[in-house]
Amino acid sequence: MDTLVNVAHGFGVALLPVNLLYCFIGVFIGTLVGVLPGIGPISAMSLLLPVTLSGTPESGIIMMAGIYYGSMYGGSTTSILVNIPGEAASVVTCIDGHQMAKQGRAGPALGISAFGSFIAGTFALIALMLVAPKLASVAIAFGPAEYFSLMVLGLVVLTFLTQGSMPKALLMACIGVVLGLIGLDSITAQPRLTFGRMELIDGIGLVPVVMGLFGVAEVLLNTEQAIKRDIINTKITHLLPTREDWKASAGPVGRGTILGFFLGILPGGGAVVASFASYALEKRLSKTPERFGHGAIEGVAGPESANNAAAGGAFIPLMTLGIPPNVVMALLLGAFVIHGLQPGPLLITQNPGLFWGIVASMYIGNVMLLILNLPMIGMWVQLLKLPYNILFPLIILFTILGVYCSSNNVFDVYVMIAFGIIGYFMRKLGYEPAPLVLAFVLGPMMENNLRKSLILSQGDLWTFVQRPISGVCLVFALVLLIAPLLPSLRKKRELVALDEGA
Amino acid sequence: MNNDTNVKLRLSNSELWGGLIGLALGGFVIWSGMKLKLGTINDPGSGYVLFYTGILMCVFAGAIIVSAVTEGAPTLASRWENVRWSKPLLLIACLVAFSIALEPLGFLLSSIPLVLLLLRLIDPVRWTLAIPIAVLVPSGMWWVLKRLLLIQLPSGLFGIG
């Protein structure tokens, strides 16, 4: 009953005209960046992070969340029609989606992708409504040791799933922690790594770091090659899947939804892993696995449902524990902090309007996305013809303005340009920026919780192992650290390794 | 990958350079941690986490170096093979020039040439389109930010913008 009252309260907040507008802007931009290859939700969210300052916390976070799950919808359009993933979670959709389009079945592929996404998104939201308050009440009992170990697990899982060698990803995570510690020590107020510069006393901002690593570096990388596009030019018809299509897709949508939701909750996981896992699962369960790769609708329905369910599931650790499970959620945490809010176990009780408003807006956003992605598909197809040589300079200009406006400080523009250049060389040498950014956000929290637990336990390191939740997290983290040393597990890791930056 | 692009103990080994940079950074972080005081395990100081993170960085950088030397890695040049490497290089030069010019010239006088250069450098947009975009977009953004949102952008020594 309480849940129903809260949901009604949430819809009251989400249906306010200003929040509806922000929700629409969010899902629209999300679909836009999902459709455009080369620009992912991370770049778009970092670009718009300063914009959230102008409105209420609800409006800003509703918009940011909309960009995330909106990009999951939009990404499939480009994968199906152009065979280029609009964003990383739609890589798998290219395999069968584009084959379907080549066979003249672009309509059903786009249709099942949108309906599957809607069903999965709806399920994830209902599960979020039911699970989050319960988990939050348990999380109140978490101490600094549990928080520290959970964050360590999150970072290790992300480094495990990142493309390239694990030592490289772990090195990136360590650099992220160090960058996060720049500025005043929160306990002793001693300046650290500031090199005597006043601008660094408050630390490096999340916005310039992320915009540099994901926005500027992405543009630099994209200019290396002329982007060629093989757009399916035939008219897209029959967007509503047939009875046979539904029959073939029902199982993959259901399984993809459940799998995606749980993978989304796991720290370090997310939409990309979920879509790959769902594709592998469907291929394994299929009686005719040879159809996969040649236009099997199950290969579109499963992964597209999984990535949307994961996008919803990823909100659980952020909202209930205050721990972002992936880089996108780390940006959302940044948006919360900018507004003076701390997501965690007390968020739901202290700010019920905010929590339930965001959840309700996500449902409204899903309905908006269904409308945006089916009847208006022609508009997105036209957008795929937008010339990149005009788009990229404008992205650079908007990142500069976005960074400057977030702090009114020219120094942040320098930081962004520096991180853009560093990010480009990092990517060229095979160092992924995702672990760095997550560690940058988690670093100060990790340090704080580590020092607090050591002070509370009077220097007893066993406290991290003796407390059950903390112990389990550390054991899992250790297993994942050792796993790449075993050849069979190393091969499996390479199969699921993801590129968060896309 | 052929023998020319996959090398072991050579200065052109790109992974070796990556590892060495990581090792140097790790060493610097350890030194910074020690300088800030480690404290004790009962009461960790400001440099405690930095010190141990620095050690971890050295360990991981060491692992990268060992793997680069034993398994071999692509050369630095091969990382830029078959790509238009001059494009990102020019873009970087533009961004560095922009960051030098931003404070003395102000937002408008530095961003209009930046956008124009980028439009002409990436995949040249014709002048008749590039010039209006380069002038109108930064000016439009400046007007929205300054007049509507009351955000003061850098106006430089000439006070333009």
Mind explaining what this structure looks like?
- The complex is a heterodimer of chains A (502) and B (161).
- With 502 residues, chain A is mainly alpha-helical.
- Chain A has one domain (2-496).
- Helices cover 72% and strands 1% of the residues of chain A.
- Chain A has helices spanning 2-14, 17-35, 41-48, 57-82, 91-102, 106-139, 144-161, 166-180, 206-222, 243-265, 271-285, 298-313, 315-321, 327-338, 347-350, 352-373, 377-383, 388-407, 410-428, 434-456, 463-466, 468-482, 487-496, and strands at 183-184, 191-192.
- Chain A has a two-stranded antiparallel sheet with strand order 1-2.
- The two termini of chain A are 42 Å apart.
- Chain B has two domains: 6-80, no CATH class; 86-148, no CATH class.
- Chain B is built from four helices and two strands.
- Chains A and B meet through α8, α9, α18, α19 and α20 of A and α1, α2, α3 and α4 of B.
In short:
Chain A has one domain.
Topology:
The complex is a heterodimer of chains A (502) and B (161).
Chain A: H1 2-14, H2 17-35, H3 41-48, H4 57-82, H5 91-102, H6 106-139, H7 144-161, H8 166-180, E1 183-184, E2 191-192, H9 206-222, H10 243-265, H11 271-285, H12 298-313, H13 315-321, H14 327-338, H15 347-350, H16 352-373, H17 377-383, H18 388-407, H19 410-428, H20 434-456, H21 463-466, H22 468-482, H23 487-496
Chain B: E1 6-7, H1 14-35, H2 48-71, E2 73-74, H3 86-121, H4 127-148
Antiparallel strand pairs in B: 1-2
Q: Give the largest interface.
A: A-B, 60 and 66 residues
| Total helical elements of chain A | 23
The number of distinct structural domains of chain B comes to 2
Number of separate helices of chain B: 4
**SS strand fraction of chain B:** under 5%
What about the largest sheet of chain A? 2 strands, antiparallel
Coarse structural class of chain A: mainly alpha
Give the spatial strand order of the biggest sheet of chain B.
1-2
Q: Looking at the structure, what is the overall shape of chain B?
A: flat
Considering DSSP H and I runs of 4 or more, what fraction of the residues of chain B is helical?
A: 55-70%
Radius of gyration from the alpha-carbon trace of chain B, in angstroms: 24 Å
Average pLDDT of chain B works out at 87
Major beta-sheet overview of chain B: 2 strands, antiparallel
Low-confidence stretches of chain A: none
| Inertia-based shape of chain A | globular
